[in-house]
Amino acid sequence: MARKIFVGARIFDGECFHDDKALIVADGRVEAIAAGNDLPDGETVTLSGGVLSAGFIDAQVNGGAGRMLNDEPSVASMEIIAGGHRPYGTTSLLPTLITDTAEASIAAIEAATEAVKANRGVAGLHLEGPHLAPARKGAHLAELMRPVEGRDVKAFIQAREAIGTLLVTMAAEQVTVAQVRELAEAGVTVSIGHSDCSSEAAAERFDAGARGVTHLFNAMSQLGHRAPGLVGAAIDHPSTWCGIIADGHHVDPKALRTALRAKRGEGKLFFVTDAMSLVGSEKDSFTLNGRTVRRERGGFCSKLVLSDGTLAGSDVDMISTIRYGVTYLDLTLAEALRMATLYPARFLRLADRGHLSPGARADLVHLTDALTVIATWLAGETA
């Protein structure tokens, strides 16, 4: 049995910290967290202080390392994107295809089916469109948006069976309650987003099995005192998960702090990056569906905008969201780490990731006390 013993750092197991303990990894899986005087034989990995945690999990990654999934929905693109985010602590992610043609969606499904098998950080696929509402299009192309049809439901179910983990973002206006129920019962993770729906329409879909809301506050009907909208429904519904973009541009920190305090259902908000190709790249612009997106430097991190000023995804990485959470959102380090590990794993039903319990994948990240990434491991091997 190939065994590694990690010593020299505080260990965060997904729930709490362990001081003066060792993480024991055998054959790519967590074996135990043990006291230093009760260790088996194995290769010792000595860490220089800081924190050892489960690797980060990102449910919404459009690009990285200079590559957008929409430009080339292939296995190679997915592996490049996953590799581009690994230096920032992300060991599992869902490559995300934003609204595009049917041909692009088919190619992304085929690529994800193969990329997941390679076990190099691609944990599934996120299809963000084309079943979105033009009224809340954001940076997506409205002319490609359309309602969900019976053939789409069948295709999503088949894709979930092939890939394992499939997340689809849909507007409540574009999918019926019955369709949501059929998809959810087949294991597809349905998230409501890019929607101008009423709170009642959203709640009906949550009750039917829609599991989450895509980038809370962004591209959706807002919270009003008589019309709570999708934001109000998402915060009020106890079983609904909400991804949030914590980059200082997409949502004011006061709104995020309010949502964190108000959300019904413990631990239901988690970090996503919604990252574009410029993360891990020195370029200052890229093309999205034929439109130029430029990087504007400044603030907590750079922001990405179209020519009319519309935000076009983010330029943030996962470790930066954790620093933002601790600095601006009044989060403890433990809760900020959970929002990048345990909570997204639970949302995506990735039972063996996001924590360091016995049997979990040894996908690890070593952080300094200043919350920068020192190293990552995939299944116990240096990544």
UniProtKB/TrEMBL annotation:
| Names of required cofactors | a divalent metal cation
NCBIfam families, per database record: nagA (TIGR00221)
**Active-site residues, record numbering mapped to chain:** 274 (proton donor/acceptor)
According to its UniProt record, which protein family does this protein belong to? Belongs to the metallo-dependent hydrolases superfamily. NagA family.
- Which source organism? Rhizobium redzepovicii
Q: State what protein this is by name.
A: N-acetylglucosamine-6-phosphate deacetylase
Residues at which substrate binds: 139, 218-219, 226, 250, 311-313
Q: List, alphabetically, the Gene3D superfamilies matched.
A: Metal-dependent hydrolases, Urease, subunit C, domain 1
As recorded in UniProt, its EC number(s) are 3.5.1.25
Q: Name one GO biological process term.
A: N-acetylglucosamine catabolic process
List GO molecular-function terms, semicolon-separated: metal ion binding; N-acetylglucosamine-6-phosphate deacetylase activity
UniProt binding sites for Zn(2+): 128, 194, 215
- Residues in Amidohydrolase-related domain copies: 52-381
What keywords would UniProt list here? Carbohydrate metabolism, Hydrolase, Metal-binding
